[in-house]
Specification:
The protein has a three-stranded antiparallel sheet with strand order 2-1-3, with helices on both faces. The protein folds into two domains: 64 residues, no CATH class; 68 residues, no CATH class. By secondary structure, the chain is mainly alpha-helical. A hairpin with a 5-residue loop joins strand 1 and strand 2. It is built from six helices and three strands. Helix 1 packs across helix 6. It is elongated, with a radius of gyration of 18 Å.
């Protein structure tokens, strides 16, 4: 994978991880990203330049679809299932995923597991980047 594509994938993944909507210019691979303007405390004025670029060149842009909650859940489940050296943590995480509010439960557990927290972030990032790479391949064929 070339450096430019890797950088693009990383930028899109970071935007998605922050809950942004992402559009990619198919002619020059520039991206425009926006927060959810329906969310409280979103400031549309901060994004006027991005919105103008997208409006002025709409025909060159396509939206990159963000992963859904099912995808995120499967990443958490896969991470937990692959913990082989700490069966107590594995069981706690898998149990949290079976309860109400599984995302919050998983986060509450992993945030206090110093040895696994960074591993979780790396695991999640790798899978999210793979998702973005496949989505770009699909969109830019």
């Amino acid at each position: 994978m070339n450096v430019q594509l890797k950088k693009l994938i990383d930028e899109i993944e970071n935007n998605f991880d922050c809950g942004m909507q992402v559009f990619i210019n198919t002619t020059n691979l520039n991206i425009c990203s926006f927060p959810d303007f329906d969310a409280p405390f979103s400031d549309e004025e901060m994004w006027e330049d991005q919105k103008k670029e997208l409006d002025d060149n709409w025909g060159n842009y396509i939206e990159v679809e963000r992963w859904d909650s099912t995808f995120s859940f499967e990443i958490m489940k896969s991470f937990a299932e692959n913990i082989s050296e700490n069966s107590l943590l594995k069981d706690k995480l898998l149990n949290a995923l079976q309860k109400q509010k599984p995302f919050r439960g998983f986060k509450n557990i992993i945030d206090y597991e110093i040895d696994y927290r960074q591993r979780w972030f790396e695991y999640k990032k790798k899978h999210q980047q793979n998702y973005v790479e496949k989505e770009l391949e699909r969109l830019l064929q």
